[in-house]
Amino acid sequence: MTANIAPLTQCAAWKALEAHYPKVRELHLRQIFADDPNRGERMAAEAVGIYFDYSKHRITDETLKLLLQLAEESGLRAHIDAMFRGEKMNVTEQRAVLHVALRARKGQAIVVDGEDVVPRVHGVLDRMADFSNRVRGGEWKGHTGKPIRNVVNIGIGGSDLGPAMAYEALRHYSRRDMTFRFVSNIDGTDFAEATRDLDAEETLFIISSKTFTTLETMTNAHTARVWALKTLKHQAAIASHFVAVSTNADEVAKFGIDTANMFEFWDWVGGRYSMDSAIGLSTMVAIGKESFRDMLDGFHQMDEHFRTAPFERNLPVLMGLLTLWYNNFFGAQTVAVLPYEQYLNRFPAYLQQLTMESNGKRVSLDGTEVAYQTAPIYWGEPGTNGQHSFYQLIHQGTKIIPCDFIAFAQPLNPLGRHHDVLLANVFAQAEALAFGKTSQEVRADGMPEWLVPHRTFEGNRPSNTILLERLTPQALGKLVALYEHSVFTQGAIWQIDSFDQWGVELGKVLAQRIIPELEAKAEPKLEHDSSTNTLIRRYRKLRQTSP
Ligand code: F6P
After folding, report:
1. pTM of the complete model
2. Catalytic one among 168, 216, 264, 357?
3. Across-strand partners of 50?
4. Please, how many CA atoms are within 13 Å of residue 297, restricted to the half-sphere of its CB?
5. Which residues make Cβ contacts (< 8 Å) with residue 517, sequence separation at least 6?
6. How many Å apart are CA 210 and CA 218, to the nearest integer?
7. β-pairing verdict for 44-47 and 50-53
8. What is the pLDDT of residues 2-53, one digit of tens each?
9. Cβ–ligand 1 contact at 352 (below 6 Å)
10. What is the pLDDT of residues 157-173, one digit of tens each?
11. Using a 6 Å cutoff on CB, does residue 272 contact ligand 1?
């Protein structure tokens, strides 16, 4: 895709941004806003029900023009078209990147290797809907004839974070008489705590793994089987208490799950882009097929916006470019994601995989080392909790941390003044970060001189405010797709493969080597570095003294 594109730092727009940056660095949002009373309305874009205010950014019209030019020069338009056409954008794994096909409407055609994949997507969605209905309606019975009341999704990474985040986000719409748990960590505590109060006769395990070989997931799945059989006694019980979501039918069968109880997805769905594939089965059981379809519709609306809207009004493109502006020119290392919505408490964790596994790369598509920073670190917590913990650093620390404030106009749990106060806080934080409080203002408050520097807020700290009407399944789909395509935008400009994840391999390989060394009865011969050898020996010794 980048064959005819110059190396990023050679692009005219990149060079122009480098020349432009020192001028912008000196500007203060206080002045920029004072000079343009309409900035707050002008520098906002609205699409598919998302209002995106980017006025509180350290940019001028010229900055925006150059960033948009950078997107053009980087061939972003061609990249977008290629993704939607099903081209093998995941170059190092030679795979298409088609999460957009998961939410394509019936009748739309997206062809991969000569096959229109949309009918297959809808075939699986129909099977998922049928299964969810049966579980929710009590027709799908456990081995002893009891209906299913508990659903435990076992998976990790993209096979966990999406479903876990979506369940929390859409809990308001979920079956309240059922329990949903998510086990991911190989730490036995995760499984033990998730199942300690569950009745195996009423529990369904969804084993979610694209490869069905992931160590954590398979270890937890085997433990789940032992746990279930302890109560249910008969191997035959597996059929009614275990289903699988995978691309790997052979491994599913080897594990002992009937492939009739397997929900399929495909290698063109990346793990971190899979929450609306069959990996979302637990979500569908929780919220029902209609709400799940609404969520997919939200994704689709954002896909279409991303595909068709001009870049200057294209929300994911704007968001991606602004992130890049701080990352590559201001030297910002992180982005804080701050949802003022309790139901989005897992959203930052979800975004960490989406953004950092996608764009945490150090070589470009042709294998040469990049000469610029790639993905920033994403982190965050729901407001207002973060305000009483780390916001101090964002306001008065020495680092520049662009923030994404996310808020919804209508509460799902209207309780007295809560929502107005919540929203007052989100608006106030963005305002305080941008405009701060000058030393003159502090003095005017009558502060003694020695306190003035401590009470001064420099301001000029950038943020997006993303405002939606209400957290619905559709809104969640739009929000997630906004970030997915923002990540795509950045990856395309950085000329990296946003869809592989080789960086997780080495640790996995080394763990496989260390496992037998920890489990060996006799003292093993260790041939690691001196630190690893010592840690292994110490662990083996300490373990023996445990109660
Ligand atoms: O951490 C690497 C990774 O491959 C992720 O990309 C993926 O989401 C996760 O592991 C789980 O993989 P699987 O679904 O194959 O178990």
Report:
1. 0.97
2. 357
3. 47, 468
4. 10
5. 524, 526, 536
6. 12
7. antiparallel
8. 456 789 999 999 999 999 999 999 999 999 999 999 999 999 999 999 999 9
9. no
10. 999 999 999 999 999 99
11. yes
